[in-house]
Write a structure and sequence with these properties.
This protein is mainly α and 196 residues long. The protein is built from nine helices and two strands; from the N terminus they run αααααααββαα. It has helices spanning 2-11, 27-51, 60-85, 90-93, 96-105, 111-126, 132-145, 176-182, 188-193; strands at 156-159, 164-167. The protein is globular and about 50 Å long.
Amino acid sequence: MKNLVIAILVCGYFGGVVSGQSIKKDSVLIKQIDAMFKDDQFWRKEYMKISQKQKSEYDEETIERRETSSDSVNELRAKVIIGKYGYPGYKLVGEVSDTFWAIVQHCDDDIPFQEHVLALMKIEVAKNNASKENYAYLVDRVLVNKHQKQIYGTQVRYDTVTHKSAPFPLKYPKSVNKLRKQMGLKTLEAYLKSFG
């Protein structure tokens, strides 16, 4: 699962921001999600340093323990947000909607929660109030977590021996690029090249 986390962090997943909206944003919620995301990314960046043989102030065990703790706290906070607001789309929190999605991506220990968020997110995507790219990532994440074939090929494993990335099994390998295009994603081949 670490490779999935690294893949998502490395690839940059903030797509589909809606611009020009005049609806007042919830600044308190924005600050809360920002703080959650900052904590979420801090430990992932430290893990990446270790995996790339760079210096970190923390050992791998500490990083993993704190990342797990951070994810658990963020998951609880995300559930409260979902319970109060539904999926926080662009109209409510602007581009921070994308960082909320990233937090949900990391709630891998609660697949039913991720599925619930997917259902809410699907409604917001249909209204252009959430990223269809991020929706595709979460669809695949849930499928891979359930040991099923993914649709869009967003979930990738990296082989540290061969230094090559490959998607987890695909449900529709022959039409994956057509499906990716519908969601605003680049081709699978271009995506895999972005892993180096």
